[in-house]
Specification:
This protein is mainly α and 271 residues long. The chain is built from eleven helices and two strands, in the order ααααααααββααα.
Length: 271
């Protein structure tokens, strides 16, 4: 029979997997017309990344302390909640143990770091960005605007071909000419500016459609990095010999795939 430690770790990993899968699915679908999906994605991803990062650091402590987990005070003081700091601590663990990953060795690209910083800020307080504005809080960042300017635009600039960009612009012009005379558009963009014409709305839709697979790819790469670390630590933790470490590789194994495979999957909440 599985003991309480095994069950707690297995349940935590399963919950983490479900949150990450939901967030990775939602981030592909978020757009200027359905901004609530951004908040669903950010909530799921920030929760899931914090938890997988903590699992890695808990296993590292377990290995270093002969099968003992830290107490709550250590967890609060030395591990914490900040996703960006959890990443730095995870890199330290990887380097100290001289671990070589099959996929990315780090998440040091500008886009990966921007995603981590946005999700970290979201978890710390930006999830209340609208309430923060109403109450004149010092923390008034807009996570959706930040995502658009620091993730989507760089992806569009770097990963979408000039031919595809020209096609989006051409289609937007054609749709505008066909429908603008009898169409009313009233939306706000991710950055808060008004979208009041068909051409702009159509261009934004085309942009989102081309960016969406790449934004999802970057998110899964982040998840995969921590999955690789957790799997590596899993085997070292098992060697302690207490038989209370589950196979995280089975629970989170769906994220352990090459980019070519990741890029073809749209829905991650059922993996």
């Amino acid at each position: 029979m599985f003991n309480a430690t095994f069950m707690a770790l297995a349940k935590e990993a399963q919950f983490t997997k479900d949150m990450l899968g939901a967030g990775a699915t939602q981030i592909r679908n978020a757009n200027y017309a359905e901004k609530g999906i951004y908040f669903q994605a950010f909530t799921s991803l920030s929760t899931g990344l914090e938890r997988i990062g903590k699992l890695c650091l808990l296993l590292d402590y377990y290995i270093n302390n002969n099968g003992q987990f830290p107490d709550f005070n250590y967890l609060k003081k030395h591990i914490g909640h900040d996703i960006s700091l959890l990443y730095q601590k995870s890199i330290d663990v990887k380097n100290q143990r001289s671990l070589e990953f099959h996929f990315l060795q780090n998440l040091n690209t500008t886009i990966h770091q921007n995603i981590l910083n946005i999700l970290s800020s979201f978890a710390i307080g930006d999830r209340y960005s609208n309430i923060n504005l109403l109450t004149s809080s010092k923390q008034q960042s807009d996570p959706i605007s930040d995502w658009f300017s620091k993730v989507d635009i760089p992806i569009f600039d770097q990963r979408v071909t000039d031919k595809e960009k020209q096609k989006i612009a051409r289609n937007a012009q054609i749709i505008s000419e066909m429908t603008q005379p009898f169409t009313i558009v009233r939306h706000s963009s991710e950055s808060g500016s008004e979208i009041d014409n068909v051409k702009e709305a159509s261009f934004r839709t085309g942009m989102q459609n081309t960016v969406a697979p790449y934004r999802q790819l970057y998110v899964i790469q982040i998840i995969r990095f921590w999955t690789e670390l957790l799997i590596s630590l899993q085997y070292e933790a098992m060697s302690v010999g207490k038989q209370e470490i589950p196979f995280f590789s089975e629970i989170l194994g769906g994220f352990y795939n090459p980019d070519s495979c990741i890029f073809t999957i749209k829905t991650w909440d059922t993996i």
